[in-house]
Each structure stands twice: as C-alpha cells, then as structure tokens.
C-alpha cells in the first residue's frame, strides 16, 4: 500500500486541523478495499475520484467531520 500524503491533515470545509497521530491514509487497490474495511452504511468510494474516501466513525466523531467535509 502507498501512503499518498504529507503534511498536517485538516478539514477543508471547517479549516480545522486533524490530530495527525490519529490519522492515516492508505491507497488500496479496488479489489482489496472490501477486505480491509467493514462498511456499515453508505457506499464504497469511487476510487477514481480523489474527492471520495472512506473515513472511520471515530475519525469523523473526534474531528467533527460529516459527509462533504
């Protein structure tokens, strides 16, 4: 897996920094994504669209993120 970012993560919608010690981005081949995550609601992201991601419940809760953040 590749880690495709560097720098301090932040929410673009709210300009709030996200705790980097609780943040990880992994680039996963499309066929392996269902083996790595359990989706409880919604849909898997379109991996050809860089604006679509899977975010954990705890990442969203702890940082006030919502759909569209």
Molecular structure report:
With 69 residues, this protein is mainly alpha-helical. It has one domain (1-69). 16% of the residues lie in helices and 0% in strands. The protein contains 2 helices and no strands. It has helices spanning 33-36, 57-63. The model has no long low-confidence stretch (mean pLDDT 77).
- Give the fraction of residues assigned to helices: 10-25%
Number of DSSP helical runs:
2
- For the record, the count of structural domains works out to 1
Given as residue ranges, the uncertain stretches (5+ residues, pLDDT < 50) are none
Mean pLDDT across the residues is 77
User: Structural class, please?
Assistant: mainly alpha
Number of strands: 0
Describe the oligomeric state of these chains in a short phrase. Answer: single chain
Query: Mind telling me the C-alpha Rg?
Result: 12 Å
Q: Describe the main β-sheet briefly.
A: none
Secondary-structure element pattern, one letter each: HH
Which percent band covers the strand fraction? Answer: under 5%
Terminal-residue CA separation: 25 Å
Outline, from the CA principal axes?
A: globular
